[in-house]
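Q: How do we represent a protein-ligand complex in a form that can be generated token by token?
A: Start from the inputs.
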Amino acid sequence: MINNGRCAISENMKELSIYIHIPFCIRKCLYCDFLSFPTGGGHTDAMREYADCLCREIRCSAPFFNKYQVLSIFLGGGTPTLLPPGTIASLLAVLRESFHIAEDAEITVEMNPETAAPDKLREYITAGINRLSIGLQSTDDAELERIGRIHDYRTFLRAYELAREAGFRNINVDLMAALPGQDTASYRRTLERVAALAPEHISAYSLMLEEGTPLYEQRERFAFPGEDEDREMYALTKAFLQSRGYRRYEISNYAHPGYECRHNQVYWQRGNYVGFGLGASSMTDNVRWRVPATPEAYRRYVDSLPEPPASSQPPEPLELPEAPESAEASPSQGTFPLSDAGAAEALQPHVLTAEEQMEEYMFLGLRLMRGVDVPAFGRQFGRSVEQVYGGVIDTLCTQGLLERAQDRLRLTDRGIDISNYVMAQFLLA
Ligand code: SF4
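Then emit the structure tokens for the protein with iron/sulfur cluster bound:
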């Protein structure tokens, strides 16, 4: 047994990842359907109040996770770096007081380049944050403007420089392909400029045009890359980044060796994670639940949590508090603060059926380039992957979409191109 601050860590603890949702942005990007509210640069008091709520939620929930050791923490949103100075350091202090956090835990904060400042970045380093994820999307200012980003390329460059100066040695840069008005040549320029900076990690997703977003409503105004060009950009991402020393380890994620995002791999491998904050999802030991997604319902939920016991040893059994009636949370556009109209309450804890677990095991695991571990499937579910999916696997292998590699099953390049189709074949219902 080793000691981590006030919490003792034993070797047989289960592993846990923590996600903290910060639902504030200066302004909504035109394509965004994440749960975040535009603050216009104000609402500092509301952000402080939200952080207080988060601290209570963390403190009161922690005893339920006393048997877990935290290997990664991700502060996402939204724009966590918009929080007032000192807030993120306080949140991390509360997490350290409340959870068993591994000494070498990966701790990431997402940053919009517009919010970068030397003091803030130093605060994060001092607080133990060791990974920064910067949302750039494109180095072309016209493309950034068309999708409603608040920063330009120059602002990103300054933010990146400040992050390095502050001491960040593990930086991710988020990019997007298939943007309105983008072509393969401009996308290549973005890849070249970003790779020249040599961040340790690059995420490159295609823009998803989500119904209800301003960009969707205005879609007729813009020329979007066609399907062939989108595919060309996709292929370019892999070829170009690999030529610059990045290894693709997930369909849309590339890293220098050893810098693969530990936190996201937990999701793809169906590890245990708990989410704190508005609308955050959790899954531990095949039980899934979700925190309410409107401010009023969230406050009620946090108020309903039992005070943590004075001792660091909580009583058994670990049982989550009753959640209010189920209703689908709607992380859509909104002005801040949202009222409770049509309140989205917490989802009732849902115990995943064996079928649901097997489906997830396959379609999440296949996102990883190393594929799914076939013997581990058998150990976990008591049935071999061939017994459950034999016919599907044979067909997909014959079609050249899936391949067997020793003890693993993985997507081929063609399979990655139409991964949604391949994943859908693993649904059991
Ligand atoms: S895309 Fe990111 S930065 Fe833009 S509004 Fe949504 S959460 Fe905020």
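Residues 88 and 227 are 41 Å apart (CA to CA). The mean pLDDT is 89.
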